[in-house]
Amino acid sequence: MVVIAVAGGSGGVGKTIVEKLLESKFDVVILSRTARQENSSQKVQNLQINYDDIPSMAHEFERHKIHTIISAIGLVSDETSQSQLNLIEAGEKSVSTKRFIPSEYSFIQTPNLLSIDPSIQWWLDAAERLKASGLEYTRVIPGFFMDYWGMPYVQTHLQPFTFGIDIASGTAAIPGNGDNVICMTYTYDLATYLVKALDLDNWPEFSIIVGDEVTYNQVLELAEEFTGKKFKVTYDTLEQITAGNVTVPPQPEGVDSSSDEIKEMTALVSRLTVNNVFQLPKDRLNAQFPEVKPVTFREFLQNAWGRSRV
Ligand SMILES: NC(=O)c1ccc[n+]([C@@H]2O[C@H](COP(=O)([O-])OP(=O)(O)OC[C@H]3O[C@@H](n4cnc5c(N)ncnc54)[C@H](OP(=O)(O)O)[C@@H]3O)[C@@H](O)[C@H]2O)c1
To answer: Among the four residues 3, 60, 75, 245, which has the most C-beta atoms within 10 Å?
Structure first.
């Protein structure tokens, strides 16, 4: 049986991928910095690893015959980035390990975007390291996760956060004119495609997956339709966004950040949105798996808000 390891498999994206892997033919190993015992399935094992000890990680990967490593580490700092680089190096050293998916799950990160988002360097470093390794890799790109507009009513493991439109309070703080195209995918659809991609003989550099394409103006229209409410709407100008002087929509309960951090995150995502980074190329993995029908944004929103929960 082919063994797939998921680093950070207890986090938001990682847990979703693990759940889909458990429905597949693969055996699963969750890599974590801490020891955990709670899994009920025989198909999944928890493996505590020390990201600073590359030889011991490589040894563990060989011992568990790990063929593919999927990284879902939350990349939020130089430290987390270094963990992923060490994970790649250990995968390269392990004779059983042939393939690696780095933690990206976002838009296509390129050097020309560094001035908008300096943290892109962490993703670029991983891609460079993988290119220099003997491992086959693919960078998985689903755009924005739809989940944020369905919280708290949809099944999701992502941390709560409101971007642009807060449906619960009927408030929209839209970056730019609201017509930028945003490719969106539900996390469980991302995981479905990702598990299918494990069977492909060859991997492209970028595996683009798109559930739907919408603009904030369309999101607003659908949100008003399903809630039956007229929203309070503001549009931030490009000048406001460039200056970081953005309107922050109301945040849901459970957001674990200070108001400065929330504003910074809002400004960052606004800059990215108006620069059209979420408008993804048309060459997509979807075409290889026509049997998968990802949820559209309309279906997703109707499911979450259609019974007018507000
Ligand atoms: N496109 C989108 O809308 C979107 C939204 C959210 C996330 N993402 C992307 O998805 C990826 C995963 O994000 P997430 O929100 O799922 O992450 P997360 O839940 O914040 O973290 C995932 C896991 O990372 C591990 N981790 C944390 N610090 C670490 C360290 N120093 N070294 C090694 N492992 C560490 C932890 O696992 P252990 O404690 O078990 O070691 C944690 O459970 C990121 O690349 C993120 O940018 C994209």
So the answer is: 75
Counted domains in the chain: 2
Per-residue pLDDT tens digits for 102-119: 999 999 999 999 999 999
Q: Whose CA is nearest to atom 17 of ligand 1?
A: 74
Ligand 1, atom 44: nearest CA belongs to which residue? 74
Give Cβ neighbours of residue 44 (< 8 Å, ≥ 6 apart).
18, 21, 22, 27, 28, 29, 30
Segment 132-183, tens digit of pLDDT: 999 999 999 999 999 999 999 999 999 999 999 999 999 999 999 999 999 9
Which tokens is 286 given?
Answer: 């979807």
C-alpha 195/C-alpha 212 separation (Å) is 19
Q: Do 126 and 161 have their domain in common?
A: no
127 shares its domain with 81:
yes
Residue range(s) defining the domain that contains residue 48: 3-137
